[in-house]
């Protein structure tokens, strides 16, 4: 069994004449937390869609857990978790109902009631989703992504709009998942989050790689004092 949970070689994606992802290649180690960074429109979400096989693309190779997601999506469904977008929820559903529905999709799901407890959502079990706060909805999104007991989880802008305490609760849960051997692939605009969570990062601009490595390596090569300063320097502008 390879030590690489994700392998991407020469990924390209165009929308008409516009190149969204350009010759992107990287690997993600099993059990690590990997951050894909870039400004809005840099190609992060498109890259995730291509890796998951939900968008067509050109690539020399894309492998998730040794399988091609473009050809073996059904086989990967039980092993890969993807963060639901809040807008995908029906507000008239209760928390326990969305948990029960999602739980039923998987062969070896986690105990969702224990998950609610770990996230501090146990008192919201009978609440309608539309009554949850932003932080509560985001934590529910991550719990649902983890419902199938996956080996890899993809999280896109997982803590955008959360207050500091809610963000730290999310970080704690992600570290708990990592301790259980889960590989986490995330995007984020918060560099403090990146510094705390990520084992390795890849920064892209206009769909192309501009830097990669550990946070310490990227900061050192940038000549800056923090990841926040390094990121701004590397992408060339605030956007």
Question: Could you outline the blueprint of secondary structure elements for this entry?
Answer:
Layout: E1 4-15, E2 18-29, E3 33-37, H1 44-52, E4 61-64, H2 73-77, E5 80-82, H3 95-103, H4 112-118, H5 134-145, E6 152-156, H6 164-179, E7 183-187, H7 191-197, E8 200-205, E9 208-213, H8 215-222, H9 227-235
Parallel strand pairs: 3-7, 3-8, 5-6, 6-7
Antiparallel strand pairs: 1-2, 1-4, 8-9
InterPro entries: AAA+_ATPase, ABC_transporter-like_ATP-bd, ABC_transporter-like_CS, ABC_transporter_ATP-binding, P-loop_NTPase
Family: Belongs to the ABC transporter superfamily.
Keywords: ATP-binding, Nucleotide-binding, Transport
Describe the structure.
The chain is α/β, with parallel strands linked by helices and 239 residues long. The chain has a domain at 1-73 and 152-158 and 185-239: P-loop containing nucleotide triphosphate hydrolases (Rossmann fold). The chain has nine helices and nine strands. The strands form two sheets. Strands 5-6-7-3-8-9 form a six-stranded mixed beta sheet, sandwiched between helices. Helix 5 runs parallel beside helix 6 and helix 8 crosses helix 9 (227-235). The longest helix is centred in the C-terminal third of the chain and has 16 residues, at 164-179. The model has no long low-confidence stretch (mean pLDDT 90).
CATH topology of the domain at 1-73 and 152-158 and 185-239: Rossmann fold
Weakly predicted, low-confidence segments: none
Number of helices: 9
**Strand line-up in the sheet with most strands:** 5-6-7-3-8-9
Pfam families: ABC_tran
Organism: Candidatus Enterococcus ferrettii
Protein name: ABC-2 type transport system ATP-binding protein
Family: Belongs to the ABC transporter superfamily.
């Amino acid at each position: 069994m390879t030590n690489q949970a994700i392998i991407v070689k020469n990924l390209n994606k165009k929308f008409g004449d516009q190149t969204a992802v350009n010759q992107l290649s990287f690997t993600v180690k099993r059990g690590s937390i990997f951050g894909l960074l870039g400004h809005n429109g840099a190609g992060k979400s498109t890259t995730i869609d291509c890796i998951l096989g939900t968008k067509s693309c050109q690539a020399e190779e894309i492998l998730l857990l040794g399988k091609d997601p473009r050809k073996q999506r059904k086989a990967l469904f039980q092993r890969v978790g993807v963060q639901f977008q809040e807008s995908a929820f029906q507000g008239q559903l209760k928390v326990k109902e969305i948990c029960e529905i999602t739980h039923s999709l998987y062969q070896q799901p986690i105990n969702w009631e224990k998950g609610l407890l770990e996230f501090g959502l146990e008192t919201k079990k009978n609440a309608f989703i539309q009554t949850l706060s932003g932080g509560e909805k985001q934590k529910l999104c991550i719990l649902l992504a983890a419902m199938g007991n996956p080996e890899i989880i993809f999280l896109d802008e997982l803590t955008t709009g959360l207050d500091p305490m809610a963000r730290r609760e999310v970080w704690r849960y992600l570290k708990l998942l990592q301790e259980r051997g889960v590989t986490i692939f995330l995007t984020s605009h918060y560099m403090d989050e990146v510094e705390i969570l990520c084992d390795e990062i890849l920064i892209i601009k206009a769909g192309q790689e501009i830097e990669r490595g550990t946070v310490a390596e990227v900061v050192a090569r940038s000549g800056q004092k923090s990841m926040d300063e390094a990121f701004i320097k590397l992408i060339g502008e605030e956007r």
